[in-house]
Design brief:
The protein is an alpha/beta fold. It has twelve helices and nine strands. It folds into two domains: about 5-210, Vaccinia Virus protein VP39 (Rossmann fold); about 220-290, Helicase, Ruva Protein, domain 3 (Orthogonal Bundle), CATH 1.10.8.100. Strand 5, helix 6 (about 130-140) and strand 6 form a beta-alpha-beta unit. The mean pLDDT is about 90.
């Protein structure tokens, strides 16, 4: 069995199976052992842990996770990679490969059956186009998770930890920070992958909050307000909410709610903190239900 993590072994295994990269799956495989070590370390994987790996590819990071964890469940959407994973992971008895789309998999059921509903650690090297749906899907399904450590495009990692008034601040920043505390564990240049992506990447760890940092009457409503506030960034908050099909309230009621928040009537959504969005959504919730 080849120990992966360097260009030579990676190219050999790809050639052995005549593997062709699928653009639709956004495949970029890691070829840097230092980065692989950093990911496992950032996730804090120990022999007590069950790790859910999303998108194992040819099993490079999976090998490292198998060495560190009690058990690894690797979910891979591309069926052409399954025979390769059988080969590269043949030395490990603590790994299960599932050929499935992670967005369609019942992760709660999996965690219940395989880990007695105890929190798992999630590790992934995610393609850019699907990063947000996967992370939001994990949050919204309320899967028992200790932390999520993911390799994402650098710009996405920056967005996840940005604060109000910065150009990267947006709906993703607020959603991530509502569920977790993000921190960037490593920046990863394009030459650490095969094929080389056109942009830099980053490893970001999301530590899930034990308790939400803000209390809201209606989570769904808060996120509708957040999305509406950033859909038209240049518009004032009152106009952004008024133009949104998701918020069905007269403009004067929206203006009243913003006034109750104690901020300028011409404020833009990008200036509000998570706490202010929570207060605003509670005020709007009360107005909608009175």
């Amino acid at each position: 069995m080849a120990t992966l993590g360097n260009p030579k072994e990676t190219i050999e295994i790809l050639n052995k199976y005549n593997f062709t990269f699928q653009k639709k799956f956004g495949q970029n495989f890691l070829i840097d052992t230092h980065v692989l070590d950093k990911i496992v370390k950032a996730a804090g994987v120990t022999k007590d842990d069950m790790v859910l790996e999303i998108g194992p590819g040819i099993g490079t990071l999976t090998q490292y996770l198998c060495e560190a964890a009690r058990e690894v469940i690797a979910v891979e959407i591309d069926k052409t990679l399954i025979p390769i994973l059988r080969d590269t992971l043949s030395a490990y008895t603590n790994v299960t490969v599932i050929n499935e789309d992670i967005l369609k998999l019942d992760i709660n059921k999996l965690v219940q059956e395989r880990n007695n509903n105890k929190p798992v650690k999630i590790v992934a090297n995610l393609p850019y186009y699907i990063t947000t749906p996967i992370i939001m899907g994990l949050f919204e399904a309320h899967v028992p998770v200790d932390n999520i450590t993911v390799m994402v495009q650098k710009e996405v990692a920056d967005r996840m930890q940005s604060g109000p008034g910065t150009k990267n601040y947006g709906a993703l920043s607020l959603a991530v920070q509502y569920y977790a505390k993000p921190y960037i564990a490593a920046n990863v240049p394009p030459n650490c992958f095969i094929p080389r992506p056109g942009v830099g990447s980053a490893v970001i760890r999301l530590n899930l909050h034990k308790e939400r940092p803000v209390q809201v009457s209606d989570e769904n409503l808060m996120f509708r307000i957040i999305r509406a506030s950033f859909n038209q960034r240049r518009k004032t908050l009152v106009n952004g909410l008024n133009n949104s099909s998701e918020i069905s309230l007269p403009k004067e009621i929206i203006a009243e709610a913003i006034d109750e928040l104690g901020v300028s009537p011409t404020i833009r959504g990008e200036a509000l903190t998570l706490e202010q969005f929570a207060i605003l959504s509670n005020v709007i919730y009360n107005k909608m239900n009175s």
